[in-house]
Amino acid sequence: MKKLLLILAFCTAMFAQVTKAVEVPYISYEIKMGKGFDEVNANCLMCHSFGYITNQGPQSRAFWKGKVDKMITHFKAPIAKGDAEIIVNYLAKHYGNGK
Amino acid sequence: MKRRDFFKTAAVVGVATVGSSAFGSNVAMREPIDSRTPQKINFPEKRPMITHSNRPPLLEAPRSTFSQVITPNDEFFVRWHLPDIPTFIDTDKYAIRITGNVAKPYELTLKELKEDFEQIEVTAVVQCGGNSRSAFVPITGGVQWGSGAMGCAKWKGVRLKDVLKRAGMKEGSHWVNFNGMEKPAYDKTPDFVRELNLDELNEDVMIAYQMNDEDLPYLNGFPTRLIVPGYYSDSWVKMIKDIVVTKDHTPLFFMDQAYRIAANATHGETPDHLAKMTKPITRMNIKSFIGFPDEGAEVEFQSQLVVRGVAFDGGIGIEKVLISLDNGKTWKEAMLGIDYGRYAYRAFRYSFRPNEKGNLSIMAKAIDHLGQEQPLAKDVPWDRGGYMFNGIDIVTIKIV
Fold first, then answer.
1. Who's near B329: CB < 8 A, 6+ residues apart?
2. Domain for residue A28, yes or no?
3. With an 8 Å Cβ cutoff, is B92 touching chain A?
4. Low-confidence ranges of chain A (pLDDT < 70)
5. Mean pLDDT computed over B194-219
6. Domains of chain B, each with CATH number or no CATH
7. Which tens digit of pLDDT belongs to each residue from B76-90?
8. How far apart (Å, rounded) are the C-alpha atoms in residues A3 and A8?
9. In this structure, are residues B250 and B230 in contact, taking their beta carbons and an 8 Å threshold?
10. Is the distance from CB of B219 to CB of B170 less than 8 angstroms?
């Protein structure tokens, strides 16, 4: 019986992947609150975690505008024009380098 | 898998200041940020890793991982591009579609993959093109990886050439596209499709289903992954769904916009003078990394210290690894470990007794069979994407 259990354990280890539903942990990345957060929350989180924002390091307004434009142009994110501006302002304020 | 409701990211530290000119022309490359520690959270089949994002998952290995020549599966870095990765795959129904400019398009099941073709193994390094990106100043766009977006595994699978042969490529075929099963959140977002020229395919390019004698971990591409030894990981498509042979280059975001560098000899540029012509990143340059000791470690005066690490390149092979303990004035040869082939890590170790108390910087520099060597971090060319950093690694410890 012990042997059988061992074999079973071994098989599970070898074939545990995706043959059973896998759950990837949810992480709530700490992000700064402020004007524009709601728009960031509503638009950015659809495709990626806030890790993508906090991990970029402090960047210029031009950089953040370029990123938001890229999401709209290349990744086809349906971000309303007004929201895009608010998001850029938020990112430049909280994750900016003063330029 | 446990759910955590809150989680703190590692602070991005050590941001260097740049010149006052707009977006700075002062390129000031530095050592990458390798001081981050793994967060206390486990992703499927992974031990705690440096977690840049959970969706898509971006996991980095800490420095200590690189004191081993084969990277264990549960310490292997993870990088996906799109958020919706299947969480269940029926391995009896799973099949790769091979279509396009071929006489006999077909679906290849996992069973056929394992039984109908010659099975091969290769030990190869896979490294993100943006590995060590945090070394770039001015800071470039993209995940600010330390140096842990790389790993070396023994891959088992079949030659891509054999799989394509069965489909019977028609005349005029020049390109082959690969698409994985992960999906974007919006239908119109481009899929992560990568393209290789048929001229780039050698006997080593394979479709792998095993990694270090186990099934591929879910986050590393279960059940199959493209292996392109010597190339950066953007070409190593995971969870392969479609292979399409074409006559002409297909316009693709992830080939035409992302993962590109300046098309000049040094692949360098400056923020003020961006190169007009760019090209996809392909073959890896020479690099080494110290796995032990860790930055800031305290080591006893006159005790025996063994520095360990790994060195690799895009397939030329490592001739030697040199260690400097005097800020690069003099270099001594490290001992190299077993040769697992030209695409694998070459482990190195260097043993000595520190004979002075205080801070000690250990530098490692790899040299390939052609005599090419790693530059100092400050001499690595800057590029807007923060790709291909291969500066000499420096670990500073304290002798007490």
1. none
2. yes
3. no
4. 1-19
5. 95
6. 1-283 (3.90.420.10), 287-399 (2.60.40.650)
7. 999 999 999 999 999
8. 9
9. no
10. no
The mean pLDDT value of chain B amounts to 92
- The domain of A49 spans 2-94
Specify if A73 maps to a domain.
Answer: yes
| Residue A99 in domain | no
Residue A24 to residue B6, Cβ atoms within 8 A:
no
Residues of chain A found within 8 Å of residue B185, distances taken between Cβ atoms: 46-47
Count other Cβ atoms within 10 Å, centred on residue B121. Answer: 14
Count of structural domains within chain A: 1
Q: Assign residue A26 the CATH number of its domain.
A: 1.10.760.10
Question: At a CB cut-off of 8 Å and minimum separation 6, what does B64 contact?
Answer: B291, B292, B294
Q: Which of B181, B182, B179, B176 is nearest to B160 (CA)?
A: B176
Which among A18, A47, A48 has the least Cβ separation from residue B89? A18
Q: What ipTM, to 2 d.p.?
A: 0.84
Contact A28 B6 (CB under 8 A): yes
Residues in a beta bridge with B319: none
What is the predicted pLDDT for the residue at B16?
A: 37
